[in-house]
Amino acid sequence: MTKVHLLGANRSYDRDIQTVSVNQIVVLEGYAGGSYVVYDVTRNQRGFTYHLVHTRTYDFNTSDLIRPLSEKFGIGIYYDSENPTFLDPLETAALLTKAKEKKAEDERKAKEERDEHERISKIGAARLRPLIPSDAKAVIIGELRVSECDSYTDYYDYRTERTVILGFSKHTRNLFAEMRKCAANFEGTSHLAEYNADFEHRENYSMGDGMYLGRNKYSGWTINKEPIYSLEKFLERFAYTAGDEANICLKTPQNQTDTAEQPTASADLSALNLEIVEYSEKAIAVFGDTKPIKDVLKGLNGLFRANLTYNGGRRAGWIYSKKQETKVREALATCVRV
């Protein structure tokens, strides 16, 4: 079937009839506009296909229907049937060469961006995994939204400029009080920590954004809650976000210092069957027989995890920020001397 009927223009066209030839200039009406040159014409059972390259941007395009300007109606690609224009074959060849070079460069940059995204995501996954409570059923996040609304065209939407992880929850209920509590963990969302009924949005309807805190739906910081159905899916979703440590804004222990401290206390922990290891770039872990001193470890604001990944295996242990390493070592050294 090679014939097509355009309802708006109320015209029929046979795509099995060639309308333009190689080296001919055609124009795009609508969108960004501009002109193309035809560098190749192919044919199959559906009719002719015209292969185009933009004369200014060097972008490739294809079209199976190019109409005469005298019958212009709506957005489309047209040719001048009264005064057709052509490029010299050498000019077309030069444009095609530039277009191929641009396409190759675009593909190279796209691959670099994918590789960098994957690298950052791996770092983020390793950083985020030990921070997820074993009983977590949801995560509370902050999103910085940037408006893309256009009242002239009656278009309303936004894009997310940044995402931060504010906390975890043991349930999936959407509670504004819980969101406000987590809002205080990050400077950008701290203004949402105080109760304000105008900030509470309940868009529990089709095409709505659910329940969230925020001054404006389309711009500024908002806070919402997302269920964690699968640990791996959660890590896949937020690994890139966690690749930047500044995007992890969990509540910090009250006795945590603002600057990193170097270990000053040393002791033979083998007497307690304990070991302190570097768990990640920003965390240490205490492994071994920790049960007899669990109250001490808990008092240091540690996080106990039953299944920490270390040296290819799973071990129970306590996680601490590297900033606490001195206090942890001093406390364990005291236990050894007792």
Which helices and strands, and how do they pair?
Elements lengths: L2 E4 L4 E4 L10 E5 L5 E10 L2 E8 L5 E4 L3 E2 L7 E4 L9 H40 L9 E10 L10 E12 L6 H8 L16 E4 L6 E5 L5 E8 L3 H12 L31 E7 L2 E6 L5 H6 L3 E8 L2 E9 L3 H13 L1
How is this structure best described in words?
The chain contains five helices and 17 strands. A six-stranded mixed sheet has the order 6-5-4-3-8-7. It is of the alpha+beta class and 338 residues long. It has three domains: 3-87, Roll (SH3 type barrels), CATH 2.30.30; 128-247, no CATH class; 269-337. Strand 14 (274-280) and strand 15 form a beta hairpin. The model is unreliable at 253-266 (pLDDT under 50). Helix 1 crosses helix 3 (231-242).
Global outline: elongated
Q: How many helical elements?
A: 5
H/E series: EEEEEEEEHEEHEEEHEEHEEH
Poorly predicted runs are 253-266
Q: Strand order of the main beta sheet, please? A: 6-5-4-3-8-7
User: Cα-atom Rg, whole angstroms?
Assistant: 31 Å
Protein structure class: alpha+beta
Beta-strand content bin:
25-35%
In whole angstroms, how far apart are the ends? 90 Å
Mean pLDDT: 88
Largest sheet: 6 strands, mixed
**Count of distinct structural domains:** 3
Helical proportion, percent range: 10-25%
Number of E strands: 17
